[in-house]
Design goal:
Layout: H1 2-38, H2 43-70, H3 79-111, H4 117-124, H5 126-136, H6 138-161, H7 165-212, H8 222-256, H9 260-284, H10 286-298
């Protein structure tokens, strides 16, 4: 049973890894080509590029974790090797989630129609708002790094002072639990912000449809289509984010109970978010969708 599950998870992991690199690489490639030809990128394209790059790093980090679980060698991660694993994971996870959240805020400010002075002020200065949010969330990144560094230092001291194998394994298991729980806590903030953006966009669409109910255009109105397109992208992000968050939670529980199959499952589930959401972003972006159609036609 364990061997069959291992083989199944391995096949799924390989498929997600390949698809994730291709979809995110496609976003980076098309926008880089566009920049070379036009010498400029729109704000949304810049967000997509950095989001795709961060997700590629997340995908490779998850693959690295997968090999560590398969080889059962987590307990040997010390010193430089541990820092080379944990801190890129913190950075890539942070920017992967926050950039997707910033994309949700971008759709809200560009598409929603509220008459509140505060909203109009933010809408007219959307680029500055997004830059300020990006700089502001670096505070969360700094706090996350400081906390992870503290856990790492504590684990290193225990590794150096304890000589028995069982004590070292137990100490590293405790370190892994704390690190994963910290990632869960810091992931709640961007999810909450994205959820608020989604709810506001829903409310804006409801207001817009009420205004259009006596108009013959109805649901064919361009603003209505823009609302619905943005909602699809944000909903997909929230749903896939929930699976990623669930994978972190399952990972935390699996580490607590030292369940190897559980760890394999959570890594396979966690890889689904950075691999599949990029395809939704491609299909929701006219330029990227046009290029993907051309590619399919050529094939």
């Amino acid at each position: 049973m364990g061997s069959a599950l291992h083989s199944t998870f391995t096949v799924i992991m390989a498929a997600e890894f390949i698809f994730g690199n291709l979809s995110n690489g496609f976003i980076v490639l098309i926008n880089c080509m566009d920049y070379v030809m036009r010498r400029k990128l729109s704000l949304v394209d810049q967000i997509l590029v950095f989001l795709a790059l961060s997700r590629i790093l997340v995908i490779w980090e998850i693959l690295h974790s997968w090999f560590k679980v398969v080889m059962d060698s987590y307990s040997f991660m010390v010193g430089t090797e541990l820092r080379a694993f944990i801190f890129p994971w913190v950075f890539s996870n942070h920017f992967s989630l926050w950039l997707a959240t910033i994309l949700s805020i971008f759709y809200l400010l560009k598409i929603a129609s509220f008459s509140r002075p505060v909203f109009l002020y933010l809408k007219w200065r959307v680029k500055k708002v997004l830059v300020m949010i990006l700089l502001g969330n670096l505070v969360f990144l700094l706090l996350n790094v400081i906390q992870m560094n503290k856990y790492t230092e504590d684990w290193m001291r225990q590794y150096e002072t304890n000589t028995t194998w069982n004590v070292k394994v137990s100490a590293f298991a405790r370190f892994s639990e704390l690190a994963t729980f910290t990632m869960i806590v810091f992931s709640l903030v961007p999810f909450t912000v994205a959820l608020v953006s989604f709810l506001l966009l829903i409310y804006s669409l409801w207001i817009h449809l009420r205004r259009m109910q006596f108009n013959s255009k109805g649901h064919r109105d361009p603003s209505t289509k823009a609302h619905k397109s943005a909602l699809r992208i944000i909903v997909s992000f929230l749903l896939l984010y929930a699976t990623y968050f669930m994978s972190l939670f399952i990972s935390w529980l699996s580490q607590t109970h030292q369940n190897r199959i559980g760890l394999m499952f959570c890594l396979t589930l966690g890889l689904f978010y950075p691999s599949s959401h990029s395809l939704i972003l491609i299909l929701g972006n006219p330029k990227l969708r046009h290029h993907i159609c051309l590619l399919i036609t050529m094939l």
